[in-house]
Design goal:
single chain, 7 helices, mainly beta
Length: 374
């Protein structure tokens, strides 16, 4: 560390001088970083320091519940981040993540970080393994205590670089310019997870911290009438309401978003974007964690999942009947998680597509040139 400290002296001086500015450190937080701030993709003026690093404590040693225990302790329709790898399923309730924002985890040889930024409603899973500038890294992340565009800024403990959660991009420090790989996950309800993966494990409230899990500290934050997101300094794009949830996909570097209000009306969307066929499924019962103080009393916003509709090199088109989805080619019956439970394709899993479920103001702040589904 002596070498790093000596090498970073100019950057440290720049950091200390800059964050003495009350606009960027309004609470006069005492900050202690060894980050090389001379390596930066964006100006330091875009960061706001509100807490000491890990003032919101990440979870590094997650403890899990089985289905039976989880259903006794959590709300049936609360949203969870569902992540499946090597045949193992895990769920991360947003009611827990909103108090921690980051979980560093591992399944066999897959090292990953589960993240959630309540202010942007951004639930994203990243690969913690990274090759950058010819060197292999295994990173673990914390909460920097800073925001940019109202979004969580992460930091890695290996180099103390700062990362934008929304994009997975290293912004400041030795890893400036590096990009984390997004891993496929789904934002669904606890019930939808346990119905699809009865042997799956669910992150427990046994975190070592005395938080009021199940309560929302951001009461009515996602009210559609809210036109000024909390701590957002930029100009809000008016193409969609600021707090409209949007489902995003990316194909060959181009992006498209689907407003949740449109998906709620259609319930199934069969679409094609940049030569790629896409199917979006919607189920209605999942609640918001950013509405009422008691999450169990909050409004339902539903779940959206995104898949490739190609099976055996044949394109399927879907409709919804009651609580399930049916392909029009074989009338096989599918779940919100893309599993066929009845018909010709029984037992087959549709290939998930990496997607996000974010607030429109945040999406436009980072990706203003996206196409909007109409």
């Amino acid at each position: 560390m002596k070498f790093i400290s000596t090498f970073l002296l100019p950057g440290l001086f720049l950091f200390s001088a800059f964050f003495a500015n009350s606009q960027n450190n309004p609470r006069n937080i005492v900050l202690d970083w060894k980050t090389d701030t001379l390596q930066q993709l964006v100006p330091l003026s875009e960061f706001t320091a509100l807490l000491i690093r890990d003032g919101i404590p990440p979870i590094d040693t997650p403890i899990y519940w089985t289905k039976e225990v989880a259903l006794k302790n959590l709300f049936l329709h609360e949203p969870v981040i569902s992540f499946i790898v090597h045949g193992q399923a895990r769920a991360y309730p947003l009611s827990i993540l909103m108090f921690h924002e980051i979980v560093n985890d591992r399944i066999d040889d897959t090292y990953f970080t589960v993240t959630y930024c309540p202010l942007c409603n951004a639930a994203i899973v990243f690969d913690r393994k990274l090759k950058y500038n010819g060197k292999d890294y295994l990173l673990d992340f914390g909460v920097s205590g800073m925001l940019r565009n109202s979004d969580l800024v992460m930091w890695d403990r290996q180099t103390e670089s700062w990362w934008q959660q929304f994009t997975g991009t290293g912004l400041v420090g030795a890893m400036a310019g590096a990009e984390l790989d997004f891993l496929s996950s789904q934002l669904i309800s606890l019930q939808e997870f346990t119905d699809s993966y009865p042997d799956g494990l669910i992150l427990s409230t046994e975190t070592g911290h005395d938080n009021k899990y199940g309560q929302n500290p951001y009461t009515t934050y996602d009210n559609p009438e809210n036109k000024q997101p909390r701590l957002f300094k930029g100009e809000v794009d008016t193409r969609l309401p600021a707090m409209e949830r949007v489902i995003d996909i990316q194909v060959e570097g181009k992006r498209k978003i689907y407003p949740l209000t449109t998906i709620q009306k259609d319930e199934v969307i069969n679409d094609r974007f940049e030569g790629k066929d896409i199917a979006l499924f919607y189920a209605s019962k999942t609640v918001s964690v950013l509405d009422q103080k008691e999450i169990a009393a909050s409004k339902a916003v539903g779940s959206v999942t995104v898949f490739s509709p190609i099976i055996d090199n044949k394109l399927l088109t879907f409709i919804k009947k009651e609580d399930h989805f049916y392909d029009q080619q074989t009338q096989s019956k599918w779940t919100i998680t893309g599993i066929c439970v009845e018909g010709k394709h029984k037992g087959i899993q549709l290939t998930p597509i990496v997607y996000g479920n974010h607030f429109a103001f945040a999406w436009f702040a980072f990706h203003p040139d996206s196409e909007i589904y109409k």
